[in-house]
Design goal:
Blueprint: H1 8-26, E1 33-35, H2 39-43, E2 52-54, H3 58-75, H4 79-83, H5 86-89, H6 92-103, H7 107-116, H8 122-143, E3 165-168, E4 174-177, E5 184-186, E6 203-208, E7 211-219, E8 225-230, H9 240-246, H10 248-256
Parallel strand pairs: 3-8
Antiparallel strand pairs: 1-2, 3-4, 4-5, 6-7, 7-8
The chain binds zinc ion (2 copies).
């Protein structure tokens, strides 16, 4: 999602959504998630959820989408007409398709679904992704003990989300965290999470005036960035999803300066 406008209202809405997702996760039967982690596939960068059998309860998924709609409308009554037709479009077959396509970040599918059904472009993928996350998060919880590192450049080892957030823990240990599935794993302090560059000269840090606990680690080799937040002084540790949200100004700064949350290898002609 493009983070072009981040008002206080938007942040509050996101907080409400995160709270809903935490509730929803409680209603998933943990037995419905059966990981089958293949070491060689994981070593090749295949995210763990792609190696996990998840028995989705479609009625729950549909109920959650209704709840998101209700929250969005409460937040912005103008959305009522825009969201009015959504539930009638969602039968079991479509719901399964939404889950599959949200899994694989297929924004092309969602854009054409929106167009075919006269919905605003952001609506289908936003709803599907929001309702998918509790399953991703429960999967991450189940397999967290097996996740110690990531394949550089492959995104989150559990869900494949591009990496963009790390926290500094005791003794300055750098722990990467995923705002999508909430998995975490260790990383070297000076290392680009996108391309593996560990050269001090081409890994730089941008700092924000008046914000001593945040840094942006940027890589001049691939132009990738991650946010590095020192949470050691925090009284309560926010979840990765909340931390990602409350540090969104860092994404602006990084992107304004030409860095991206997904590294790109520079073409040398
Ligand atoms: Zn993840
Ligand atoms: Zn890099």
């Amino acid at each position: 999602m493009k983070k072009s406008v981040v008002s206080k209202e938007y942040q509050n809405l996101q907080k409400d959504i995160i709270a809903l997702q935490e509730n929803w996760k409680e209603s998933i039967n943990p037995e419905a998630i059966i990981p089958n982690l293949d070491a060689s596939a994981m070593a090749a960068g295949v995210p763990a959820v792609a190696l996990t059998s998840i028995d989705f309860e479609i009625s729950l998924f549909l109920q959650w989408i209704e709840e998101i709609n209700a929250l969005l409308i409460k937040n912005n009554p103008e959305l009522e007409t825009k969201l009015a037709g959504v539930m009638t479009l969602l039968n079991e077959e479509t719901a399964i398709r939404w889950i599959d396509e949200a899994f694989s970040f297929n924004s092309v599918y969602f854009a054409s679904f929106a167009e075919e059904n006269g919905l605003e472009e952001w609506i289908p993928q936003f709803l599907a992704e929001t309702a998918l996350r509790p399953y991703l998060q429960l999967t991450a919880e189940k397999i967290q003990h097996e996740i110690s590192h990531a394949v550089l450049g492959a995104g989150c080892p559990v869900c494949g989300e591009p990496v963009r957030l790390a926290v500094l823990e005791d003794e300055g240990k750098k722990v990467m965290t995923c705002p999508r599935c909430l998995a975490h794993w260790n990383a070297k302090r000076v290392e680009c999470a996108h391309c593996g560059n560990d050269d001090h000269k081409t890994i730089q840090y941008l700092t924000i005036e008046g914000d001593a606990s945040s840094q942006i680690q940027v890589c001049e080799k691939c132009m990738g960035y991650i946010k590095v937040i020192d949470t050691r002084q925090y009284l309560s540790k926010p979840s990765a999803a909340m931390l990602d949200l409350t540090t969104i100004h860092l994404d602006f700064v990084a992107q304004e300066q030409g860095y991206q949350a997904v590294g790109e290898n520079k073409q040398t002609n």
